[in-house]
From TrEMBL:
Stored PROSITE patterns: EAL, GGDEF, PROKAR_LIPOPROTEIN
Pfam families in alphabetical order: EAL (PF00563), GGDEF (PF00990)
SMART domains named in the record: EAL, GGDEF
Transmembrane region(s): 7-25, 31-47, 59-80, 86-106, 118-143, 149-170, 182-203, 219-239, 251-271
Membrane is among the record's keywords: yes
Name of the protein in its database record: EAL domain-containing protein
The GGDEF domain, residue ranges: 346-489
Protein keywords: Membrane, Transmembrane, Transmembrane helix
Domain EAL: from-to ranges: 498-754
Transmembrane keyword on record: yes
InterPro entries registered for this protein in UniProt: Cyclic-di-GMP_PDE-like (IPR050706), EAL_dom (IPR001633), EAL_sf (IPR035919), GGDEF_dom (IPR000160), Nucleotide_cyclase (IPR029787), Rev_trsase/Diguanyl_cyclase (IPR043128)
Species, as recorded: Dactylosporangium aurantiacum
Cross-referenced Gene3D superfamilies: 3.30.70.270, EAL domain
GO molecular function, one term: cyclic-guanylate-specific phosphodiesterase activity
Length: 763
């Protein structure tokens, strides 16, 4: 049965456990140890290939190390009874194994990078381990008389190699914040190797070079864990580290560093300093550890301060441009408001600008181009303005400039800002190419009120200043964009009134305080109403009459228009159904209702409208939806799809206020439009303006060619009516036939018109 690759390490652990049991029970101990070593060598050689681990060099070094260790163990067992230096031939392979092992750890460390905090901690542990091994093992082993020189050298070399290994392992452990299973297995392997060498170092104090068979048990276990580390799926994590943001002295670190720091003092008490070498070793080692501790502590304080400065900068500056952010801007404005200014004409000026066309760049060329655009604009502003000016980024494409200056200087700054933003920019596109883009800016300008900038709540004044500048910016954007507007108090009052209207409108929609009035659309030759337009009305209980031009715009901006539009549609359709059921209108009478672009952007709009018509029993052809020209020009693919679905449903679509926007023939041909409504601005001039008459004549001719219904709105005089009839306009609405009225009044007026015309309502 073929094992899955990510389970091979578990199979190796099972094999290692079985062979270790045979070794402990002295049942084929030699073959068992050879199997463990051989399997480990194969694991190091081929394990990284199974998981496509890169790079391979440290793993090849580990393979060489395990091979040398295996040969060393076998030769040591075979030559145990031979005289020196033959008996030490196995140690030669073991030393080579240590060389490959240390080289592998160094390669891993070079991949991870060297952290100075981890290096200092590792050096402290290394010096402590070196002192202990030298005084406890090397000196006693070297002082045994009659030993061959090679045995004495090996007795001193093994502790040194172990000490270097301890340094590297400690440095690796202190460098990474995440220790994957492969790292834990390899770390356990190193600990077992160190434990095995420590056992031999202990018996070496008495001159022994061999010991009981079980002293090799740590090495067999190390082989098993090392092979499992090479086969584990997380072996690739050994080639990369997850760095610690701050190298803190945590409890695990102190458990390693603490004994090393206490080592010189404990050794002095336990062993004494009866020889000059011991005194020098303890003195120099202890001094080195103390020096490293001082460097470590000083470096930790320095790193903490640097991290604190870095965090403070990140909290107060924009990461993309490096400019002050909104929080830092508020602090700087407060300082300017509190500072002294020379001369009565000097004041704090704020320029709040929003880039016009930034979204188009983002959508067309990608976010990378958008980020570059923001960065370049920030750099331009910084270089174009005086050093005393503060430039901040406070939003996606919003910048704020603040300076303490005179009014002429402020106006000069405004011109510099607009000029540097409008210059073409070259950006890198998402596909790697370049594109030249041009953007503009809408900017609001405000100055701090005199007499209130040095006292009181300066934080509140800074916030108010930014709000006023933002208000002026939106006024500039509404006035046509790519311009600036200086704030005045009336703007603040208008914003406050708009907020109040929005709050009241939400309550009115929720509590159904709104009503619908109906204005007749008449056939010009007979004077009989052919349809009616549903118009929303709002009589506020406190504020009184609120015109639709005001609250409809608020509804559009506050996303209330969807709920309001759905209510108007539902009520209008139901009212038409009641009139039809009561025989107030005939079967051809239609209801005209305005719909917003936001409603047409709802993919389920046509489906819900169809359900409303079916529930009311009103044919779809008796409903006309009036759209603005902007829907045809700026509408998305979703909007076009919704319009097609509405026409497929049978609903008619008319263009409201035709002639005031992008009145192009191509738009009418591309969209499923069934009619147009001539704007009242052209109707007003009929009879007095030849130009208006020609415009209406052109609209009628174009509509006739496209088989579109034409309605003229805003007809107030018989003279206008007569001109429209002469021009061939079949339908119209306006005060000449009546204002918008409630349903009951409209029904009564319709009955009167039927009676006066001598006709009867349809059955």
């Amino acid at each position: 049965m073929t094992l899955r690759r990510d389970r091979l390490w578990m199979a190796l652990l099972a094999i290692g456990a079985a062979c270790t049991a045979l070794f402990v029970l002295d049942v084929a101990a030699g073959p068992a140890s050879a199997v463990i070593g051989g399997v480990c060598v194969l694991a190091w050689a081929f394990g990284p290939r199974l998981h496509n681990v890169r790079p391979r060099r440290p793993w090849r070094l580990m393979t060489g190390a395990s091979s040398f260790f295996l040969v060393g163990i076998i030769l040591r067992a075979l030559l145990v009874d031979q005289p020196a230096p033959v008996a030490q031939l196995g140690d030669a392979f073991t030393v080579c194994g240590f060389g490959c092992f240390i080289a592998s750890l160094v390669t891993f460390q070079s991949r991870w990078g060297i952290d100075r905090h981890a290096l200092l901690d590792g050096l402290i542990v290394c010096i402590g381990a070196m002192l202990a091994s030298t005084l406890l093992f090397v000196l006693p082993a070297a002082s045994i008389p009659g030993r061959p020189l090679v045995v004495t050298l090996l007795a001193g070399l093994y502790p040194l190699l172990d000490t270097i290994t301890v340094l590297l392992v400690a440095n690796l452990a202190f460098t990474t914040a995440v220790r994957q299973p492969a790292f834990v297995l390899m770390g356990a392997m190193m600990v077992l190797v160190f434990a095995g060498d420590l056992g031999y170092a202990i018996i070496g104090r008495n001159g022994d070079v061999t010991g009981p068979r079980l002293m090799d048990l740590p090495f067999l276990l190390a082989f098993t864990l090392g092979g499992a580390a090479a086969l584990h799926p997380t072996a690739g994590a050994l080639s990369r580290a997850t760095p610690l943001p701050i190298q803190a002295w945590s409890l695990p670190r102190m458990l390693l560093i603490g004994p090393a720091v206490a080592g010189p003092f404990v050794l002095t008490v336990a062993l004494g300093a009866d020889t000059p070498f011991k005194r020098w070793a303890l003195g120099v080692g202890g001094a080195a550890i103390v020096a490293l501790l001082l460097v470590r502590a000083s470096d930790a304080v320095h790193s903490h301060a640097a991290a604190q400065r870095r965090f403070e900068h990140q909290a107060t500056h924009d990461p993309l441009t490096g400019l002050p952010n909104r929080r830092m801007l508020g602090i700087m404005v407060e300082r300017l408001l509190a500072g002294d200014r020379t001369g009565p004409a000097v004041n704090v000026w704020m320029f709040y600008l929003d880039l016009d066309g930034f979204k188009l760049v983002n959508d067309s060329w990608g976010h990378t181009a958008g980020d570059q655009l923001i960065t370049d604009v920030g750099a331009r502003l910084r270089h174009a303005l005086p050093p005393a000016a503060t430039v901040a980024r406070v939003g996606g494409d919003e910048f704020v400039v603040v300076q303490c200056c005179t009014e002429p200087e402020a106006m000069a700054n405004a011109r510099r800002i607009m000029e540097c933003v409008e210059r073409p920019l070259t950006v890198v596109t998402a596909d790697g190419g370049t594109a030249e883009v041009v953007v503009g800016a809408s900017m609001g300008i405000v100055q701090a009120p005199k007499g209130t900038d040095r006292t009181g709540d300066r934080e509140g004044q800074a916030d108010a200043l930014m709000r006023d500048a933002d208000t002026a910016m939106y006024r500039a954007k509404a006035a046509g964009r790519n311009r600036w507007t200086v704030f005045d108090a009336s703007m603040r009052d208008a914003v406050r009134e708009r907020v109040e209207i929005e709050v009241a409108l939400r309550a009115a929609v929720a509590q159904e305080q709104l009503s619908i009035a109906y204005q007749p659309i008449v056939a010009m030759h007979s004077g009989r109403p052919a349809g009616a337009e549903a118009l929303c009305r709002w009589q506020h209980p406190v504020r009184g009459w609120i015109g639709p031009n005001m609250f409809i715009a608020v509804a559009e901006d506050s996303n209330l228009i969807s709920a309001l539009g759905a209510w108007v549609l539902r009520e209008s359709v139901q009212q038409l159904a009641r009139w039809r059921a009561d025989h107030v209108v005939d079967d051809d009478f239609w209801m005209s209702v305005n719909v917003s672009p936001r409603q047409l952007g709802d993919p389920a709009f046509a489906e819900r409208l169809g359900a409303t018509l079916r529930q009311a029993g009103v044919p779809a052809a008796n409903l006309v939806l009036e759209i603005t020209e902007s829907v045809m020009v700026e509408g998305s693919g979703l909007t076009e799809r919704v319009l097609m679905e509405l026409r497929a449903l049978g609903v008619r679509i008319s263009v409201d206020d035709f002639g005031t926007g992008f009145s192009a023939l191509g738009y009418l041909r591309r969209h499923p439009v069934t009619g147009v409504k001539i704007d009242r601005s052209f109707v007003n001039g009929l009879g007095t303006s030849a130009e208006d008459e020609e415009i209406v004549r052109a609209v009628v001719a174009m509509s006739s060619a496209l088989h579109l219904t034409v309605v003229a709105e805003g007809v107030e005089t018989p003279a206008q009516r007569d001109v429209l009839i002469a021009l061939g306009v079949p339908l119209a609405q306006g005060w000449l036939w009546g204002r918008a009225v409630d349903p009951a009044t409209f029904a009564a007026t319709w009955a009167d018109r039927v009676a006066l015309s001598g006709a009867a309502p349809a059955d």
